[in-house]
Structure formats: C-alpha cells, structure tokens
Design brief:
Elements lengths: L6 H17 L11 H11 L6 H56 L3 H11 L3 H11 L3 H27 L4 H15 L3 E7 L10 H4 L1 H5 L2 E7 L2 E3 L12 E7 H11 L2 E2 L9 E7 L10 H8 L5 E7 L2 E3 L12 E7 H11 L3 H5 L3 H16 L1 E4 L3 E4 L1 H16 L1 E2 L2 E2 L4 H24 L2 H8 L2 H24 L4 H11 L3 H7 L7 H25 L3
Antiparallel strand pairs: 1-4, 1-5, 2-3, 2-4, 6-9, 7-8, 7-9, 10-11, 12-13
Protein name: Transporter
Pfam family, one: Asp-Al_Ex
Keywords: Cell membrane, Membrane, Transmembrane, Transmembrane helix, Transport
Length: 530
C-alpha cells in the first residue's frame, strides 16, 4: 500500500491500531499504549520505516516530562529508599553480566557478540556505545541487533504480566504508596486552646516564635470576647482563646506552649473571610512565605495551610510556593481581591504552556549528555542523550523557577507531551527492531535469540525476588525500579498507565543513572576478556 510509504501517515496508522489492540482485554490483561510497539514491529518487518527523528523527538519528550514529574519526589525518595533500589539495580546489572560471562564460556560466543547481547538485552544505547568503543568490533552491533527486539518486548511483557502472575493487588499497592507519602505530610487539622501558661502571657506571637517552636499556625484569637486576626505583634493574654492549625504533633506542641484544649470556638472576625487561592503569579513562585509576608503584611493576611499535589502542608516561613499550589488565607473582605491578585488566582494561566522552558531544558540536557569523563585510556563515561535530559529535567523541576522562567509544568500539559512523546518513541523503536528480526534470525540461528532472551528475563526475575522477599518493596516502585535497572524506557511506558501515582517514575529515575554507570563498568570488564 503506497500510502504506508509516507512515514507521517504510517505513524498515525500505527498509533491508531496500537490503541485499538491495546484496549482489548484477554482474561483481564491489556497492553494499553505499549501495544503500539507490537504493531510497529509488524510494520517494520514489512518495510515501513520511521525517520530517526521521530524516535529521537519521542524519546526526548517522554524522558523530559518523566523527569519534570518525578524530580520533586526523587530526592525525598532517594533518602527514604534509594539504597534499597540501588541494590536492586546492582542485582539486575551484575547478574546479567555474570550470565553473559557464563554464556561466553559455555557456548564459546565471541566476546564482542556476547557484550552486544548484553547491551541489547538491557536496551542500553550508552552501553552499546561503550562496548563499540571498547572492543572496536562489529560483533557488538550484531549481538545488540539480535537481543534488542526481545529486550524491548520482554521487559514490557514482564512488567505487564508480573502483577497477574503474582496476583499483586495494584490498588492496594497504590493505596500503600499514597499512605507512605502522606506520612511525610501528615493530615492537618485545627483545635482551640486557652492561654494559661504564665510564661506566654504578655508576649507577642513574634516573640514566642510559635511557628518555629511548634510548626503550627495561630489563625484566630479571641480576647475579651472579641475575635481578631493575629499578626506577629499580637499579644497573648491570660484567658485568651486561640485557634491553632497544624498536624497532630504540632497541635500537641501548641498545647504544651499555650495551655489546655477547649471546646469553645473562636468565630471569624466580622468583615473577614477565608478563601482558597490558586498560585498562578510567577512573581511569588519559588518565594518563601517570609519573603511574601513583606508584600502582604499591610493586609493582615494569615495563611493557614497549603495544598500541593493533593497533600495539605503546614505553612512555615521557609516554605517556597510552587505554581499550582492552593493556599488557604484569611483576611478582610476589603483586601481579599488585592491579596488574590498577589498570588494569582488565575486557573486559565495554569493551562497555558510555555514551550521556552521545555526547549531550554532539552538543550541543556543535550549538552550535559555530550559531556564525558575520561578515566585513563580505557574508560570513558557520559550520560548520553537520555541520561542528560532526564538529569536536567529532574534538577530543573526541583529548582522550580529561575528568574522569570518557570520550569515546572501543569499535570495536563505534562501528560499530553509525555503521551505524544511515548507514541512517537514506541513507533520508531518498533519499526526499527521489526526490520531486523527475520534477518538476524536467519543469519545467526535461534540460540543467540534464546541467550539474549535469558539475559533480559533472568536478571529481572532475580531483581524481583530480592525486592519482594528481602526488601518488601511496593510492587509499583519495584516495577519502576526494574525498568530503570534495565534502562528500558518502553518498559516504564508499560508500567506508567497501571497507576495514577508517581511511584514507577520516581523509582525509574532513582535507579536509571546507577544502572547506566554499572552497565558501562561491566561492559569494560567483559571487554578486557577479549
């Protein structure tokens, strides 16, 4: 069909068929968007070719948006479970390298071909580059071409089938992950207290440093029967009643500092109101509440809580606002409109996507990926395109803002670009791999295919056993870590639609750089055998 020779037409035909097949369920199992790669394999076998730029653009967009999404949680995740996930990655890479060495000895495979099988089984382009540089042999490319197709397909099948085979409860895993996240940001509530502590009476809220001492916020005070909105200069008197907002632990500290709890409620001062305001003004993004207080102090504004990514956070003076935060404020009705303008309150502005930060981040990632470190004459390390873009996007999302540039993206914009990139990437990878399957099979027989398949599946099985039996890792984080250990972006693409949480993406981003470095080192060691 001559229309299929038009690459742009063939691209969207592959995507359409991939979605149709991906939505079909067999015994509750579906491939979702990852079905695109299987359609692309068939098209590639019959001569349909995607321009390399399609795969590159898809890869860059997908990896960049994953980094933007995972960046803020990556650093916290690394502190909490980084060591566990790194051990998982080490098990996968080292076991794959040991199996490659055994294949060299038992089956008398040429070292360059075996190393190619290893890098293809782990779908690692940086590993392939390091192997070609180390051996200088075309055998590396041959081995890579044999193992790569199943390396792509095998990881996808493994992560899609693992929950079914092990009967893993993904909803429960999702709930457990969300609960563990909430532990870092405990639920916020409020209570009323009577000022009884003699050491507190007669002192201002600023002198007492209530936020610093308790991590709670005094949002209202009733003195002599009159409710007021407090400021740092407000004095607390014996018998005053305060309303404090904070976590359970913070409220316990307030009770120790102030006095006993009471059922008496402090009403909102007449002429005041409480509103939730959406942060959409770039001027306040990445500013601390202490800095913002300099703008809002004349309006007697009290910020009682901040909602971010579905989590309530107690405001502290050093907390920086992010685009899309929802802040609950109390101030006079006369000033509320001005205060809302300070923070933005414009939901339409959030839906506007500025492509300049995206393009700038990708350019920076490209140059970081090109940067290489030389360790003598035998070992050179660089992050490559994927590692460079992923690293930069995570760092930029953590920074949040540089001058007028907002690096973060709204959830809807991120999802759209990530899906677009993913579809392009799977179509490009699939057609390229499909063009080689029959040819490599006819030339090198079935044995090398089987060895390549074993190098893909066995290390993942070992890693899954270690994660499940020894470390009791959440199954969603485990699947993300396995795809990162296998340096498999298509694998992550298969896991990503299985959950609404960021667990797989964060785990992938945590182990990917470690796995890439380990693989390059193992490639260098194996190359020395030849």
């Amino acid at each position: 069909m001559e229309f299929l020779q038009l690459s742009y037409f063939a691209l969207f035909v592959i995507i359409c068929l991939g979605y149709i097949i991906g939505n079909a369920k067999i015994k509750g199992i579906s491939l979702d968007i990852s079905a695109i790669i299987f359609v692309a394999l068939v098209f590639g076998h019959y001569g349909v070719v995607m321009p390399p730029i399609i795969e590159k653009i898809g890869l860059i967009l997908f990896v960049y948006t994953i980094g933007i999404q995972a960046g803020p949680g990556f650093f916290d995740s690394f502190k909490k479970q980084g060591r566990t996930l790194v051990v998982m990655a080490s098990v996968v890479i080292i076991s794959a390298s040991v199996l490659t060495y055994l294949a060299i000895i038992i089956y008398d495979i040429e070292v360059p071909v075996a190393i190619g099988l290893l890098t293809g089984a782990l779908t690692s382009t940086p590993g392939l580059a390091a192997a070609i540089e180390s051996t200088g042999s075309t055998g590396v490319s041959i081995g890579y071409g044999i193992a790569y197709p199943f390396g792509v397909i095998g990881v996808i099948l493994f992560v899609r089938l693992y929950p079914k085979i092990t009967r893993a409860n993904l909803k429960k895993a999702e709930q457990d992950y969300e609960e563990s996240t909430v532990e870092s940001f405990p639920e916020i509530s409020f209570k009323h207290f009577i000022v009884e502590n003699e050491n507190v009476a007669g002192k201002t809220i600023g002198e007492l440093r209530v936020r610093t001492m308790t991590q709670g916020v005094i949002s209202r005070i009733m003195s002599n029967g009159q409710p007021t909105v407090p400021s740092p200069s407000t004095k607390l008197n014996q018998g005053d009643i305060i309303k404090a907002v904070g976590t359970e632990d913070a409220l316990k500290k307030v009770r120790v500092l102030i006095g006993r709890e009471t059922d008496q409620v402090v009403p909102l001062k007449e002429g005041y109101e409480i509103q939730s305001i959406l942060v959409s003004n770039t001027e306040v993004v990445n500013k601390t509440l202490r800095e913002i207080n300099q703008w809002t102090s004349t309006y007697n504004v009290t910020i009682t809580r901040i909602r971010r990514s579905g989590i309530d956070i107690t405001p502290s003076s050093n907390l920086k606002l992010q685009m899309g935060d929802k802040i609950k404020v109390s101030c006079s009705k006369d000033h509320m409109e001005l205060v809302t303008k300070i923070f933005g309150g414009n939901s339409k502005k959030l839906s506007d996507t500025n492509f300049f930060p995206i393009a700038t981040g990708i350019v920076l990632g490209f140059f970081l990926g090109k940067f290489s470190l030389n360790f003598g004459n035998s070992f050179t390390f660089s992050l490559g395109l994927t590692g460079g873009v992923l690293t930069v996007s995570m760092l930029l999302s953590r920074i949040g803002k540089t001058g007028p540039i907002i690096w973060s993206m709204t959830g809807s914009a991120n999802q759209l670009l990530r899906t677009l990139g993913l579809m392009f990437f799977l179509a490009g990878v699939g057609t390229k791999a499909g063009a080689q399957i029959v040819e490599t099979y006819n030339e090198y027989g079935f044995n090398l295919f089987l060895i390549g398949g074993a190098l893909t599946l066995l290390p993942m099985i070992f890693g899954a056993i270690v994660a499940r039996v020894i470390f009791k890792v959440n199954v969603l984080s485990m699947l993300g870590a396995l795809t990162g250990s296998m340096t498999s972006t298509p694998g992550l693409a298969a896991v990503d639609p299985m959950t609404e949480t960021n667990a797989p993406s964060i785990a992938y981003a945590t182990v990917y750089p470690v796995a890439m470095v380990l693989l390059i080192i193992c490639v260098q060691i194996l190359a020395s055998l030849g």
